[in-house]
Amino acid sequence: MSWSSPMIGAFEKMAHGLISAKAGLWAGKVLSALGLGFVAQQYIYEPLIEQAVQAWNLVPAQLAAWVSALGIDVGVSLVLSAYGIRGASRIFMRRMENSA
């Protein structure tokens, strides 16, 4: 039994097309994530961080020590980050919908 060259050529074209499509999707996702991260950092996180630092400076030292010891600051940071990335994704998705 011998392999026919056209069958191998067809399989090679199909595999190349699938791999190219998958690589294109991965590259798009990576670039999208990088763009989303930049937008979130520039327009959401920095203003939020500035406001949080200003508010944190108004907290008495003993209360700040307890909040830090109990890990409340980490929890608040995680929640704010989640809200920030959600807001950035909405902005980014609207921008993509408008450009399409």
How far from one another are the termini? 51 Å
The number of helical segments is 3
Strand content: under 5%
**Mean pLDDT across residues:** 75
Can you tell me the number of structural domains? 1
Number-wise, the strands total: 0
Cα-atom Rg, whole angstroms?
Answer: 24 Å
The H-and-E topology, N to C, reads as HHH
Largest sheet: none
Residue share in helix: over 70%
Outline the low-pLDDT stretches: none
Q: Name the structural class.
A: mainly alpha
Mass-distribution shape: elongated
Describe the structure.
With 100 residues, this protein is mostly helical. Helices cover 91% and strands 0% of the residues. The chain has one domain (5-99). 2% of the residues are buried. The model has no long low-confidence stretch (mean pLDDT 75).
How is this fold's topology laid out?
Blueprint lengths: L4 H53 L3 H10 L1 H28 L1
Helix pairs in contact: 1-3
Summarize the structure.
The chain is mainly α and 100 residues long.
Give short descriptive properties of this protein.
elongated; mainly alpha; 0% strand; 91% helix; 100 residues
